[in-house]
Write a structure and sequence with these properties.
about 450 residues, mainly alpha, two-stranded antiparallel sheet, about 65% helix, globular
């Protein structure tokens, strides 16, 4: 075996399989690396314990929600090859349905709701997303992949425009008056975590429960605000849902049903010729994936207390796809790692760098436009460009995300763990004779 062959063997080897504890250890190591990254920024910025924990909670929150949505998308795209570009549309259906069902009949402001318990609203939101998925899947799956993507993208925009329209601001369902709040948005039911810590979830000032007294007193000893404790608890709940999503999708992928989905992804004609009703499998998978996306949207917005059509722009679907591409489509572990890396490095990373530069460097006033920021570069004056970039951090994030996407597509289209894409066969059918002969030659 030549030196070049040995080098390729070393770098093509999947070192993650040698970790004690397997994929769970890999995910933990990635999160610890992100916590270290954020913690260093927090220490440099001079954050106190409460501020530092709040920053770590923020990373955990976004890592969890992007992992949840990447896992749901992986069921459709990674398993069955369904190119759904309307993820945010199904998120919006889930969130708004939950809000309408759970809002009070006589709210202080905004359109009234049905006044149902929050668990009923949550189930209703998931079912509504599944029903819209069924309505979209039956006609859409009759077209080719590219047109299917266009249809799902158009559906998501239709949903957002309908939600924000004046006609949807308030309407009647039978004798009950309700609505979406239109472009002004809609307040959501109180964060359910409040019921653990406060006697009146809607009014924390009313007092705390025995659990709240005990937990808050422990954290107050290290000067951590109660609001941060509530956020940390909610982030922990999201991590639990990531585990549930992973276990569910892993069971699906390893089942005979999942092997049919992966066969459809590889070659639908062959799967159909073996007697499998591929249309039924694709419709069912699309419905389940949309339901999981609806639940993911509810979990994301459930702690915010408010939602608006602006939260469901197409760029959110783009972000979820990036997370899945980084981790590797077809790998559930890759979906979690991709969501964590996207949240920690690409979504929150530019904001942290902006705060760091803004605190330690002083520049003159911001340029009025891009030309005024670029022209001084000709004289090696980078100050105006840095100020302009920091003031336009959202656009800087787009540039960074686009650059990462181009890199992965060009150099590693399978993603970080895409080489471990689950195959349709229940056993390894690859011919290992060549590898055995190479080992014997050594």
């Amino acid at each position: 075996m030549t030196l070049a062959d040995r080098t390729r063997t070393i770098f093509s080897r999947d070192w993650t399989t040698d970790l004690p504890g397997g994929d769970a250890t890999l995910v933990v190591l990635v999160m610890l690396a992100l916590y270290t990254w954020v913690g260093l920024f927090g220490i440099i910025l001079g954050l106190d314990v409460s501020g530092l924990l709040n920053s770590l909670q923020t990373i955990t929150f976004y890592a969890a929600v992007y992992a949840i949505l990447a896992l749901a998308l992986n069921l459709q795209w990674g398993y069955a090859g369904l190119f759904n570009v309307g993820v945010v549309g199904f998120m919006a259906v889930g969130v708004y349905t939950m809000a309408i069902l759970s809002r009070p009949v006589a709210p202080i402001s905004g359109p009234p709701g049905f006044g149902l318990p929050l668990p009923i609203g949550l189930i209703g939101g998931v079912l509504a997303a599944a029903v819209i998925g069924l309505v979209a899947a039956i006609p859409a799956l009759r077209v080719d992949d590219d047109y299917f993507a266009i249809i799902t993208l158009g559906l998501a925009e239709i949903i957002r425009i309908v939600i924000s329209s004046p006609a949807a601001d308030e309407f009647r369902v039978g004798s009950i008056r309700t609505g979406t709040g239109g472009a002004n948005g809609l307040s959501l039911p109180q964060n359910p975590i409040h019921s653990i810590y406060y006697t009146d979830p809607a009014s924390p000032a009313a007092g705390t429960t025995p659990v709240g007294d005990a937990v808050f007193s422990i954290f107050e000893a290290v000067h951590v605000d109660p609001a941060v404790v509530v956020k940390i608890t909610y982030a922990g709940v999201l991590v639990g849902f990531v585990v549930l999503y992973f276990v569910f999708l892993s069971r699906v992928g390893n089942s005979p049903y999942g092997r049919v989905l992966k066969a459809i992804r590889e070659d639908e004609l062959v799967a159909n010729s073996l007697g499998k009703n591929t249309d039924r499998f694709k419709v069912e998978t699309f419905i389940v994936g949309c339901a999981l996306m609806g639940l993911g949207g509810i979990l994301w917005q459930g702690s915010q207390g408010f939602t608006s059509p602006g939260n469901y722009l197409p760029q959110q679907t783009f972000y979820i796809f990036i997370a899945l591409i980084i981790g590797g489509a077809g790998s559930n572990t890759g979906s979690i790692i991709g969501g964590a890396l996207f949240a920690g490095l690409l979504f929150e990373g530019p904001r942290l760098i902006s705060r760091l530069v803004d605190q330690f460097l002083t520049f003159r006033s911001s340029p009025n436009n891009f030309v005024d920021a670029v022209v001084p570069l000709l004289s090696l004056d980078i100050g105006p460009f840095i100020v302009y970039a920091l003031d336009s951090i959202a656009y800087l994030r787009f540039i960074l995300v686009g650059s990462i996407l181009i890199y992965f597509i060009h150099n590693r289209p399978q993603g970080l763990l895409g080489h471990r894409k689950e195959i349709a066969a229940s056993i390894d059918l690859l011919d290992r004779s060549a590898e055995t002969e190479g080992a014997d030659d050594e």
